[in-house]
Inverse folding.
């Protein structure tokens, strides 16, 4: 297993910087993997939140550019996996509504900052795209659905219908693109859960674990 970091948006970097780092990592795994006991023919990428977006996007781009699929499977957990252009136009401002935050409002002594965390998906997308005249083009490039095709790896997507950061529309967009490309996809959409819904011993965690084990077994056996 390889655990890696990438330049983050919180530090001022843009989406292309993050994807570039992920692509560099895949190149490293292919080149240096055998020396580390890794099989470069059986690469599975997993990420959560921004890591899900970056990992999935890099996997699609790498597979599209390669003669053979570089990535054999992806597990994308609660990330922006859909059409970022559409999401930017649709979501001007959103307020968290996940179960965790709803329950926190009932806790005695809960501070206002813990009750409500303002989140503007539109601003977040503009930040990773870099803004400017090329905003629409950048959002298109950073949209995983733009890069879906016959090369897309089998993918597991976990995304709560009440995710307070990224709309469940992302799942619908990605599902549609994968179905059109006739590529394997398992979308897990639990209700009454918030962002990070698989952290801890939760039902989404158990479902994701089950799906991940199945995907790893399929990749190891050389099956899709």
């Amino acid at each position: 297993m390889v655990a890696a970091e990438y330049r983050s948006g919180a530090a001022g970097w843009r989406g292309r910087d993050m994807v570039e780092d992920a692509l560099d990592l895949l190149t490293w795994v292919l080149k240096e993997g055998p020396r580390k006991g890794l099989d470069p023919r059986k690469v599975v990428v997993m990420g959560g939140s921004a890591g899900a977006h970056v990992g999935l996007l890099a996997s699609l781009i790498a597979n599209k550019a390669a003669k053979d699929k570089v990535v054999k499977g992806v597990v994308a957990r609660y990330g922006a996996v859909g059409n970022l252009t559409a999401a930017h136009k649709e979501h001007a401002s959103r307020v968290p509504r996940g179960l965790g935050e709803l329950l926190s409002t009932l806790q005695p002594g809960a501070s206002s900052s813990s009750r409500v965390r303002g989140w503007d998906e539109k601003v977040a997308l503009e930040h990773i795209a870099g803004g400017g005249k090329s905003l629409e083009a950048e959002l298109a490039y950073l949209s995983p659905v733009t890069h879906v095709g016959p090369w897309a790896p089998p993918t597991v997507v976990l995304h709560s219908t009440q995710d307070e950061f990224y709309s469940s529309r992302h799942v619908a967009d990605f599902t549609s693109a994968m179905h059109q490309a006739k590529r394997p996809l398992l979308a897990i959409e639990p209700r009454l859960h918030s962002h990070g819904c698989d952290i801890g011993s939760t039902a989404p965690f158990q479902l994701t674990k089950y799906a991940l084990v199945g995907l790893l077994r399929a990749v190891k056996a050389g099956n899709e």
Q: What stands out?
A: The chain is about 45% helix and 10% strand. The chain has one domain: 9-221.
